[in-house]
Design a protein that fits this description.
Number of helices: 16
Helix content: 40-55%
Strand order of the largest sheet: 1-4-5-7-6-8-9-10-11-12
Low-confidence stretches: 31-35, 331-335, 486-495
Strand content: 5-15%
Order of helices and strands: HEEEEEEHHEHHHEHEHHHHHHHEHEHE
Number of domains: 3
Mean pLDDT: 91
Length: 495
């Protein structure tokens, strides 16, 4: 390394963060508990663009902090990542962490958010805007040529950055954050893709790992190459969604699982053949991509399943309006800027995780075809990685590699059994790959284990607050309200 570890630690590990109140436009004060507003703080960190050349160019990494509410009993900092790739760690701490994390965790830890390099306020990767990409897809029906055009724009705007936004460098950034926070060990809570960052960190710095929770586990030896496996997991989750509707009784999609799934298949084929009018003035027709987004998005959240079942039942009878309304509710308030060009974060990370031989046009064509064959409804989502054949940055040296983290303390892995986005098979594989890990499962669908209910909350809180590792083969039975069938006479609800 140019200049050695001594220079890296002296220049970057020794910097002092200037924590200031976050801009009100980014972090409006929110009342919590005793009606006192939370006090979000923000700071900017400097890190090397290329860790192999720490004397060279630098980039900025944006951080925010939600201070522990009980500073007298503070354990330390808890670094977080919400997943993605491409998701904002700042937004997670602003919008999600205050409600998701238990009051006990909030009391004992400073909650730290970080926009990973290439994302949000941390030197973002710039590509086409959403408006430009939509226009391109309308004009260019050939998906390969559309991917080439998008990759070209990414290279023109962010070519200097693209080789250095891989997970390996994000993990190195985490260690700089740990050092400047004056924490001897990294305490970390990562969700989904954030579990890959955690595994990379533990591989790089096993003896600097403190208490690490990896929620909804991604296997870096398979992801994102295992497009078929992930698409099959979505199909499996769709079956669980249908069965849970039937188990609750009076399912609007009908009393038989096979017939309900056949109706969903038929609806998908109808929409693929021709977009369906919603019957609502000013509402665009329902396209196949919109329907896929509705179905896949609902597999992330069990609490949406009752409403989805009703909307699908209406669509079976040619009433598309409830499904369109469901899509509108899922999209949220529509504040996304269609001209924002900070859209390249996901591909910038995913493509670097594919090995060179997995990025050839032939290999990607085969992966897409396999996903479509194994998962007729969700397989087309594999098209998203077609851009990797022409992505203007090389694969990481660690692409497709399993992490062992030899020398790290026990890492807690948690996963829902019917999670579509991060299949339980990935969590079990990582449990076997890591030198020291414990896996806890939850008999639930939906994405993200913590906190589905009292058991899932206690498992994670006990570990982060008290260092208590759950017993091997621990299983929780927490599900979203309204999903669990009512208990029969003489039975107790599962806990």
């Amino acid at each position: 390394m140019d200049g050695g570890a001594g220079f890296l630690e002296a220049k970057f590990h020794g910097q002092e963060l200037d924590w200031q109140p976050c801009p009100a436009a980014e972090a409006p004060e929110q009342a919590r508990g005793d009606n006192k507003p939370t006090a979000f703080e923000c700071a900017t960190l400097t890190v090397p663009l290329n860790y192999e050349k720490p004397h060279g160019k630098t980039i900025d990494i944006a951080l925010n902090r939600l201070p522990a509410t009980d500073q007298n009993h503070r354990i330390g900092s808890l670094l977080t990542n919400p997943g993605g790739p491409g998701e904002s760690g700042l937004a997670y701490v602003y919008q999600t962490a205050p409600d998701q994390l238990s009051p006990e965790l909030r009391a004992r830890y400073d909650i730290i958010g970080m926009d990973p390099r290439g994302v949000g306020k941390s030197t973002p990767v710039r590509c086409m805007s959403a408006r430009q990409a939509t226009r391109l897809l309308h004009q260019q029906k050939n998906l390969t040529k559309a991917a080439e055009a998008n990759a070209k724009v990414c290279g023109q705007k962010s070519g200097h950055l693209l080789p250095f936004v891989g997970t390996d460098n994000v993990a190195r950034d985490l260690d700089v954050v740990r050092a400047v926070l004056d924490d001897d060990k990294l305490n970390y809570l990562g969700f989904s893709y954030g579990t890959v960052i955690g595994q990379f960190y533990a591989q790089l710095h096993p003896r600097r790992v403190g208490r690490m929770v990896l929620d909804s586990v991604v296997n870096p030896a398979l992801w994102p190459a295992d497009a078929a496996g992930q698409a099959v997991a979505f199909e499996t989750a769709l079956g669980v969604f249908v069965q849970s509707c039937i188990d609750r009784g009076n399912c609007p999609m009908g009393p038989r699982r096979g017939e309900a799934i056949e109706k969903i298949d038929a609806l998908v084929e109808r929409v693929r053949a021709k977009p369906l009018a919603t019957g609502t003035r000013g509402e665009p027709p329902l396209t196949s991509s919109a329907l896929l987004q509705i179905l896949s998005g609902a597999m992330y959240r069990e609490d949406t399943w009752p409403a989805l079942a009703k909307a699908l039942a209406a669509a079976f009878d040619d009433d598309i309006a409830p499904l369109a309304a469901f899509a509108g509710n899922s999209r949220g308030d529509g504040d996304d800027d269609p001209d924002n060009d900070e859209t390249g974060g996901p591909s910038a990370v995913r493509c670097l995780h594919l090995r060179p031989e997995q990025r050839t046009p032939e290999a990607l064509d085969n992966a897409i075809a396999e996903a479509g064959q194994d998962a007729p409804i969700f397989g087309e989502s594999a098209e998203d990685d077609r851009v990797c054949a022409v992505w203007p940055a090389p694969s990481m040296p660690w692409a497709g590699r399993a992490m062992t983290a030899a020398g790290a303390p026990e890492i807690l892995l948690v996963n829902n059994r019917y999670d579509a986005s991060t299949p339980i098979s990935w969590a079990r594989s990582v449990d076997g790959q890591l030198a020291s890990a414990t896996l806890v499962t939850n008999t639930s669908g939906g994405h993200i284990f913590y906190p589905k209910g009292p058991c899932t909350r206690q498992v994670v809180d006990d570990y982060l607050l008290r260092g208590k590792t759950p017993p091997k083969n621990k299983t929780c039975h927490d599900r979203a309200p309204g999903i669990t069938p009512p208990a029969r006479d003489g039975e107790r609800p599962s806990t």
